[in-house]
Design a protein that fits this description.
Blueprint lengths: L2 H34 L6 H4 L2 E4 L15 H11 L8 E4 L5 H5 L11 H6 L1 H13 L2
Antiparallel strand pairs: 1-2
Length: about 130
């Protein structure tokens, strides 16, 4: 393999790793938010919506106490995520900000803010894992 081919292979591998890193970081953050969302009937958890490029509007008439279905939907959407894309995690329920502000004893410190505080550590961990590949 010549120098040009080596550089091309390196660039391709790097691009794949960057895409994978973005997906892993997004899913870890989103999963934390979803699982830390307080649960009564599961509507708040079920209304976390993930989209690439455009933020979703509206609410969902779903319940997901465990968060499993919501995380699965997020995973399916994030499968198409590439480095440089804009990805949204949105919850349009009218009371979600009250939950984020600690209204529920189940999440007195909120959900999104806590996940964002962990971003650096999550990114470093994902980076470390990808170096091993």
């Amino acid at each position: 393999m010549g120098f040009a081919e080596d550089i091309e292979a390196f660039a391709s591998k790097t691009e794949r790793k960057m895409d994978l890193a973005v997906r892993k970081i997004a899913l870890e953050l989103f999963s934390r938010v979803i699982l830390q969302t307080p649960v009564d009937k599961g509507r708040a958890r079920a209304n976390w919506q993930v989209a690439i490029g455009t933020a979703p509007d509206g609410t969902l008439e779903l319940e997901d106490k465990s968060g499993t279905a919501t995380i699965s939907a997020a995973t399916a959407t994030a499968a198409g995520l590439r480095a440089g894309d804009v990805i949204y995690l949105v919850n349009n329920l009218p009371y979600i900000l009250r939950l984020e502000d600690g209204y529920s004893g189940q999440a007195p410190a909120g959900m999104v803010g806590l996940a964002v505080q962990e971003f650096q550590r999550i990114a470093e961990q994902v980076g470390f894992e990808l170096v091993q590949i």
